[in-house]
Each structure stands twice: as C-alpha cells, then as structure tokens.
C-alpha cells in the first residue's frame, strides 16, 4: 500500500472522527450532570486518545516526510494545516478538557467547546478534501 493511500485513509479516519465529535460527543456533554460528566469525560478522553493520538502522529510524520521528499505548494499547505490543528488542539482544547476533568464545568464552557471545535472540524475536512483532490489528480 502506498504512502499516499495510507495518508488518505488516516485523513479520512480523522475527518469521520471529528464530525462525530462535533455533532454527537461534544453536544452531549451538556446533558450530563457535573459529577457524571467528570466521570464520563475521564473515560472518554482516555479511550479516545488511544484512537486519535496514533492517527495524528502518523499524519504529522507522513506530512513531514512529504515536505522533505517533495516540497511543493500541496505538501507545504498540508503540513501547515496539520500544524494549525496541533496548535489548536494543544493550546485551546487541551486546556478546556483539563477544566472539565478538574470539575470546572459551566454551560458557557461546554457551549464554547462546541463552537470552537468548528475550526478543527473545518480544517480536518479541508485537509481530507485537499489530500483527496491531490490524490485523484496527480497520484493515480
């Protein structure tokens, strides 16, 4: 299996996951009591990290490899989108999830989680569509 197909599959997996999180998981947080949300959130983040962390690490490694191998507008744009996603995740969403885990929950925080996550949802969708377009146009 080629690296292009592996990258496309990783991007597809991440775009499906982010849409599920955006449309199902994050909105559901507001239906939990604070106590139940803390318990569920800690289980959810541990389980979810087991799936997502390998995918985002592989996505980053493949993108760096692509830039080193063939530096062009596509590979550089792809890497920049991935770096933007990492920055948003670690500087914006990790602190929000830490607040939830520590019981600093408010309806405003949960609403902001859903609203802010649209940025990652759009970026991962664009990243997948960019990769799909590039693959179908040039790699076949």
UniProtKB/TrEMBL annotation:
The chain crosses the membrane at residues 6-32, 44-65, 71-96, 117-136. This is DUF4149 domain-containing protein. Keywords: Membrane, Transmembrane, Transmembrane helix.
């Amino acid at each position: 299996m080629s690296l292009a197909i592996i990258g496309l599959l990783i991007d597809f997996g991440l775009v499906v996951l982010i849409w599920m999180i955006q449309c199902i998981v994050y909105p559901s947080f507001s239906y939990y009591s604070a106590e139940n949300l803390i318990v569920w959130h800690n289980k959810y983040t541990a389980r979810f990290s087991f799936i997502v962390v390998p995918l985002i690490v592989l996505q980053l490694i493949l993108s760096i490899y692509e830039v080193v191998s063939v530096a062009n507008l596509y590979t550089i744009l792809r890497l920049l989108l991935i770096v933007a996603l990492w920055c948003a995740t670690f500087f914006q969403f990790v602190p929000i999830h830490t607040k939830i885990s520590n019981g600093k929950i408010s309806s405003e925080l949960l609403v902001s989680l859903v609203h802010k996550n649209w940025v990652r949802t759009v970026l991962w969708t664009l990243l997948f569509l960019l990769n799909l377009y590039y693959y179908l146009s040039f790699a076949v």
